[in-house]
Write a structure and sequence with these properties.
- The complex is a heterodimer of chains A (117) and B (107).
- In chain A, the strands form 2 sheets. In chain A, strands 2, 4, 5, 6, 9, 10 and 11 form a 7-stranded mixed beta sheet that branches. A 4-stranded antiparallel beta sheet of chain A has the order 1-3-8-7, with no helix packed on it.
- Chain A contains no helices and 11 strands.
- By secondary structure, chain A is an all-beta fold.
- Helices cover 0% and strands 53% of the residues of chain A.
- In chain A, strand 5 and strand 6 form a beta hairpin.
- With 107 residues, chain B is an all-beta fold.
- The relative contact order of chain B is 0.34.
- Classes of the chains: A mainly beta (117), B mainly beta (107).
- The interface between A and B is medium-sized, with 23 and 24 residues.
Chain lengths: 117, 107
Amino acid sequence: EVQLVQSGAEVKKPGESLKISCKGSGYSFTSYWIGWVRQMPGKGLEWMGIIYPGDSDTRYSPSFQGQVTISADKSISTAYLQWSSLKASDTAMYYCVRHLSGGLDYWGQGTLVTVSS
Amino acid sequence: AIWMTQSPSLLSASTGDRVTISCRMSQGISSYLAWYQQKPGKAPELLIYAASTLQSGVPSRFSGSGSGTDFTLTISCLQSEDFATYYCQQYYSFPWTFGQGTKVEIK
């Protein structure tokens, strides 16, 4: 069974760093793209970026380029999304997603990030 | 970047209705379009990819059509479990983008 299991909810202060994770199982981790999608409270879906763990090819939305870093450790089938300095506006639910050739077919359960002083 | 216009943003309908949601692109994307359903408090789920291919396990009352710049999601006979928010998404070129969403509510 294909699963994407994300790390738990986080509460952070502005300026702090954070790295959240997404572990894939039940499929060949290096053969699919893994991406991240943001959903701010009460808002729609925003595509942030994506990585191909097989060769670490990474693409970002211009809206998120320089604001976050996407990485992957294929030895443990895990993708990451990290911030070096969080802002209150980073408060959102973050989903990891899998892609091969047709849409985002599997979604993680989501990681809620709350940034508040 | 490719801009997407999804309409309507809110759709009021009754069980048994046929509903359609539109997604228009700022440039042609061939058939590289997907549709998702999201229920409150849940992660979105893939309904349709390649504009018209039904994801495994999705009921046949859902269908997608279109290519190029204009796409449509149709629910042929709305069921109670279909009241949710729907999003289109293009994966033709980076950066991939989502439509603004359509909330289907009970009339």
